[in-house]
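lol ok so funny story. i was supposed to be doing the assay writeup but got distracted and ended up predicting the structure for this chain instead. priorities right. anyway since i did it might as well share w the group, maybe its usefull for someone
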Amino acid sequence: MIKKLSWNVIGLILFVFLNINSVVWAQQLTTSSLPVKQFAHPDRIRYDGSCMSIEGKDVFIYSAAFHYFRCPQELWRDRFRKIKEAGFNTVETYIPWNWHERTMPSGLNDNSKFDFKDLKAWLKMAQDEFGFYTIVRPGPFLCAEWSGGGYPRWLAKLGPGKGDLWLRSADPEHIKWSVHWYNAVSKVLAPEQISRKKKGQKGIIMFQIENEYDAHGTKSKEIFLKALYHSYKNNGIDVPLFTCLTAQTRASKDPELSQVFDCDNYYVANLSDAPSCARRMYDLRKKQIDAPGFVTELQGGWFSLVTGALSEEHYSDARHFKAIGLMSMLGGGTGINYYMFFGGTHFEGWGARGMTTSYDYNAAIRESGATGPKYFAAKAMGEFINEYGTKLARSVGGPCELKDAPKSLFGGLRVAPDGTKFVFLHNTDPNKPLKGRVTVVPGKVAQSTEPIYNVNQNGEKVLIKTATVTNGNTTANESFAIDFNLPDLGAQVLVIPPGAQPEQGKWCLMESEQPVRPSVSIAPIRIANALRYNDPVNEAKWKTLPKETSLSEIGINDFRYNLYRSKVTLSAADIQQENRLLFNMFTRDIVSVQVNGKIPKRLFPEKADAQTWITRGAYSRIRPNEFDNRFDVSGLLKAGENEIVVVYENLGHAHGYVPMEELAGIRQAGLSTTDTMLTHPLQWELATDVAGITKSFTGPSFKADKWERIALNTQDEIPRKGNGVQPKGEQTGLFTWYRVEFSLPEKDAKVWMPWMAKINASGNGYMWLNGHNIGRHWEAGPQREFFLPECWLNSGTKKNVLVFGLRQTVNGANLKAIEVMPYPNSAEFRK
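and the output, tada:
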C-alpha cells in the first residue's frame, strides 16, 4: 500500500530531482566542448564527472598505498589483512623500473633482464586472496623517495650527460627507453586488468602515466605523455588511465590526452590546514568536470632524512589523518589513496640519496606492522565509506557558509541523489574543543583569504592557485541549524536521511575506541660482546679497470661498497712535489683512502658524512676538472712502489634533478701539486665488493675464528634516536666488520610482536640479519632503531646472527652497544 506523502516531502523530492537533473544538464552543456571519454569495456569499468562505476555500480575508491618492494614477501599477508580489516576496497603501488631491470640490457628489444616475479605475486595476493581492486603507477618516474625515482642507474649511460635535464624529457632516446619499460611492464599487467577477469573478480582498475609532472621543468611534455599513452594502448591496457598533478591532461581537449584524467596530491602545511583539501578538491572538480575527484596521495605522514627528524616526529596524527580525508570528501572527492598507509623499509640501501633506512612514514601501519590511533581512524573512515560511499559518489555540494560559527569551525554540505544530506564539520583548532549551535547556509560560501599550500618533497610550502568557490551546493537552498560537539582538531559528519529534520540525523566518525593490547613482558636483550675484524682489502677479487669506466658499465647498479687500488712507482722528486690526491667522480659520492697503510688528511669535504654533503650539487653537473674528494698525502708517499687503497661509498641514487642522471664510481683520480688539476693520473684496479662480502662474512654459518672478541657497553642507556649521538673516535682503517649473536624466546602462537635492534655505533655501512641485508647504518642519525623482520628471525634454541660492515668515518667504526627488544606497546593477538 502506498502511503500518503506530505506536500513538504513531495516538494523536497521534486526540488532535489529537478536540481540534480539541472546539474547533469549543465555539465553536459559544459562538457560538450571536450572530447568524449572512450571506454573499452564500459560494462566492467568506466567513470564520469562523479565517480568510478565498476560492473554497473558506483564505487567510492578507498585505497591504501602499500609498496611490495619495501616489505619482505613473507609479511605481505599480515599487511594485507590489516588493510582489509580497516575497510579499504583498493590497494595502490608504484612499480620501480630499476627494481625489475637491474642489469643493463643489450638493446631496446632485449627483455631478458626483467624479473617481475614479486610484482605478479603481490597482485595475485591482493586481488585473488584479499579481494582488493588495485591501482598501479609504473612511472617511469616515481619520486617515492626511491633510488633514482625508479629510473635504472645504467640509463644515464645512454643520455647526453650535459645540457638540460634529459630524464622525463621528450628527447627521442629517452622516449625509446621509457617505451622499452612500458612495453615490458604492460605485458605483465594487462592480464591483471579487471576488464580481463571474470565478472565479480578483482583486478587492476587504474593505470598512471608519469608522476607529478608539473614539478619537473622539461619542455614538450605532451610528446612524452603521448608516447607513454600509445605504449599502454598498444599493449592492451584498456582500463582508465590517469596522471597526478599534470596540467597537460587536466581537462585536455587533445584527442588522446583527453582520455587521461588528472588527480591531486595533498600534503598540507600544518595540522590546521585540512580545509585546503576541500577547497583544492572543489577546484579540481570544477576544472575537470568529466572525471571523478581523486586524491592519488593523501598525506599519511612523512618520510625521514639522514640528519633530519624521524617520521614519528612529523606533526600528522590520527586527528589530522581523519580530517584531511573528510575534507577531501567534502570537496567532492570520490577516490582517496592514503600515501603511505604502510611505509616499510629501505632494505639493501634502495632508498633515494639522503633517506634513512626506515620508511616508517608515521603511517597507519607502522614499519614493524604495528597499528595505533591513525589506523583506527582509518578503520572508522572505512566503516563510514562502506555504509555511505555509494550515496556520496554522486552527491553534490561542497564547502559553505556556517553562520555564527567560531573562526576555527569549517565545513559544508553534500546532498545525495535521494536527498540524504551530509554535513561535514571540522574544528581546525588542535588545542581546544568546540561545542555549540551553527546554521548551515547551503547556497553561500564564506570566502577565505587564506593562501593554500602544498608541501613538496623537500618539505617546502608551495603556493597553490585555485579557482574561487562560488557555490557550495546546488541541490538545497534552505538554511538549517545543527548542534555540534567537536574535540580538538575533530572532524565529524552528520547524516540526515531524506525528508528528516537535522535533529533526526546521525553523527558519524566519532572518536573510535582502540582495543586493549595484550600485556606481554619480555626484557630487552643487551648484547655483551662482539667479534671484530678489519676488512682484508688486499684479499678482495681485483681486476683492472678501463679508464673512466663507471660501475654501471661493469654491471653494478645496486648499493654496495667497492674497492679501488693503485700501485704506483715514484721518484724522490715526485713525492716532494705531488702532495695531493684528487678524485673526479661520476656523482658526488664519498671515498676513504689509505696510502701505504696510513690514513691521509681529508681536505675536502672536511666532514663527508652529513646530509648537507649528500644533497650538495643537486642542480649542477660535475665538471671533468672538479675534484670533490681531496686529500693531503704529504709524508705518506715513498720513493719506489706505493699502494693506494680506496673504499668507495655509494651514497645512493638521487631521485630528482641532475644527480638522477649521473652514473656511479670514480671517473679519474691521481696525484697532483694543486687542488684543481691532475698532474699524475693513476691507473686503477677495482674490486666489485669489499673482501668480507666475497669471503661470506655476512652469512650466519661463517666461522669467525680469527676475529677479535671485544666487550660492548652494557650499562649506559642507548639513545633510541638522534643526530650526532654516535661514539666519538678516530679513523684507524678503511672498513671494519662486527658480528654479534643473540637468542630469542620461543614464539607465542597467540601473540604477535615485532622486534628491533637499538644500536649505538660510528661508521657508515650495512647490516645483515641471518644473511638478509636489513639496510644502511648512517652514523649521523637520526635513526638508531632498526626493524628486524620476524620472518628472518630465529626463536628458541637457534641463534640469530647480526653482522655489520662499516666504512670508517672520522669517528672510526666503533660498535659501542646493541640492544634487541620488542617494539614498545606493539603486541597484538593473532587471529
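Confidence is low (pLDDT under 50) at residues 1-29, 470-474. The first strand starts at residue 45 and ends at 47.
back to the writeup now i swear
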